[in-house]
């Protein structure tokens, strides 16, 4: 079957990584899967022309609003994967909520990463409850074995011995919903007390106006560095070498970076929001903070308590292996895409 896969493909953001992985699953099942950025199309008619030109038989969209609205009324069967901001933010805007409800009525299936995402969708659109499935993200990490950590530190202008260094890594697209500046002032105060702690923010420049604000702030803030986006294998290598991964988002569906850190045996400190608390159990698989001051307290505790660090690493790794199987994710999408091959009555 020839499939269109619509997603927001800003490089190395969570949705882009998920889209690439799901496409691999579908192609491994023998389908031809054309992955396109939803922002390349302005209207359903543009999508309709593309579908006809490419002789496409079905589609999948990652993000109920950004991708799903473009597939409406095009006459081909499609499925939806919830992204995160569709259920956490767009759902609160009346016009977008209405559009998403209509998209969901037409979709053959919808995938939520967590039970809480499924419950949110079911509360909003109860008639769709029988077509919503839960499939957590499958994780597979591939750090670049040739990556040089010391060179990375030099390029980041961190002139400290790697032996006594604690790098806290924040991976996110530079946009307001990821709130990369949330911890910057508190972290910088800590750095000035303890010069061997650094925060490194890595990610693509998604929102140009906000990116300028982030760059200006980081430039004048001791102990914080901003690095451009990197190839996935290099990013995994950086993650493997850092002391801890940080997530300070206002909203998350399911953070792939958190799960990848757990897989790479790196402790996680995450802002206490529903998407994060669904995967991070406080003091078990990671640490949850509610404000910048609590983040610093917990980070200090992690630095000074090797037993806690060891426990969190072991539990995180076990959690990912148990609940975020790449093979199970592949099987689920293979089964769901079969519903696009049949007529609705089958």
Explain what the structure shows.
With 346 residues, the protein is an alpha/beta fold. The protein is 44% helix and 16% strand. It is built from 15 helices and twelve strands. The strands form two sheets. The chain has a six-stranded parallel sheet, sandwiched between helices. A six-stranded parallel sheet has the order 9-8-7-10-11-12, sandwiched between helices. α3 (68-71) links the parallel β3 and β4 (78-81). α11 packs across α14 (306-323). The chain is elongated. The relative contact order is 0.13. The mean pLDDT is 93. Belongs to the glycosyltransferase group 1 family. Glycosyltransferase 4 subfamily. InterPro entries: Glyco_trans_1, Glycosyltransferase_G1. This is Glycosyltransferase 1 domain-containing protein 1. Keywords: Glycosyltransferase, Secreted, Signal, Transferase. Pfam families: Glycos_transf_1.
SSE topology:
Layout: E1 2-7, H1 14-28, E2 32-37, H2 44-54, E3 58-62, H3 68-71, E4 78-81, H4 85-88, H5 94-106, E5 109-112, H6 115-124, E6 132-134, H7 149-155, E7 166-171, H8 184-193, E8 197-202, H9 208-219, E9 224-227, H10 232-241, E10 244-247, H11 256-263, E11 268-271, H12 274-277, E12 287-289, H13 292-304, H14 306-323, H15 326-338
Parallel strand pairs: 1-2, 1-3, 3-4, 4-5, 5-6, 7-8, 7-10, 8-9, 10-11, 11-12
Poorly predicted regions are none
Q: Overall pLDDT, averaged?
A: 93
Helix content: 40-55%
The run of helices and strands is: EHEHEHEHHEHEHEHEHEHEHEHEHHH
What percent of residues are in strands? 15-25%
Largest beta-sheet characterization: 6 strands, parallel
**N/C terminus separation:** 17 Å
């Amino acid at each position: 079957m020839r499939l269109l896969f619509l997603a927001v493909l800003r490089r190395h953001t969570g949705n882009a990584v998920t889209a690439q992985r799901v496409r691999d699953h579908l192609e491994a099942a023998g389908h031809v899967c054309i992955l396109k950025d939803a922002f390349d199309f302005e209207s359903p008619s543009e999508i309709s022309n593309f579908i006809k030109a490419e002789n496409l038989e079905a589609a999948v969209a990652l993000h109920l609003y950004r991708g799903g609205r473009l597939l409406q009324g095009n006459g081909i069967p499609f499925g939806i994967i919830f992204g995160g901001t569709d259920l956490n933010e767009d759902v609160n805007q009346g016009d977008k909520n209405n559009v998403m409800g209509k998209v969901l009525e037409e979709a053959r299936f919808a995938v939520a990463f967590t039970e809480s995402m499924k419950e949110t969708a079911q509360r909003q659109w109860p008639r769709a409850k029988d077509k919503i499935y839960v499939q957590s993200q499958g994780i597979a990490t591939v750090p670049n074995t040739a990556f040089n950590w010391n060179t990375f530190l030099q390029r980041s202008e961190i002139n400290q011995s790697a032996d006594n260094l604690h790098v806290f890594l924040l991976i996110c697209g530079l946009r307001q919903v990821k709130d990369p500046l949330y911890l910057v002032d508190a972290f910088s105060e800590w750095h000035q007390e303890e010069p061997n702690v650094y925060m490194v923010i890595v990610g693509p420049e998604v929102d140009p106006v906000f990116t300028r604000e982030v760059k200006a702030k980081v430039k004048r803030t001791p102990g914080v560095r901003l690095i451009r986006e990197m190839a996935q294998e290099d990013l995994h290598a950086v993650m493997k070498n850092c002391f801890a991964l940080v997530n300070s988002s206002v909203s998350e569906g399911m953070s792939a970076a958190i799960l990848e850190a757990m897989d790479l045996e790196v402790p996680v400190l995450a802002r206490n929001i529903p998407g994060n608390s669904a995967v991070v159990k406080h003091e078990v698989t990671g640490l949850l903070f509610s404000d910048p001051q609590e983040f610093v307290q917990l980070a200090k505790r992690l630095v000074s308590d090797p037993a806690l660090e060891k426990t969190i690493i072991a539990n995180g790794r076990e959690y990912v292996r148990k609940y975020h199987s790449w093979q199970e994710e592949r099987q689920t999408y293979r089964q769901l895409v079969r519903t696009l091959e049949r007529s609705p009555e089958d």
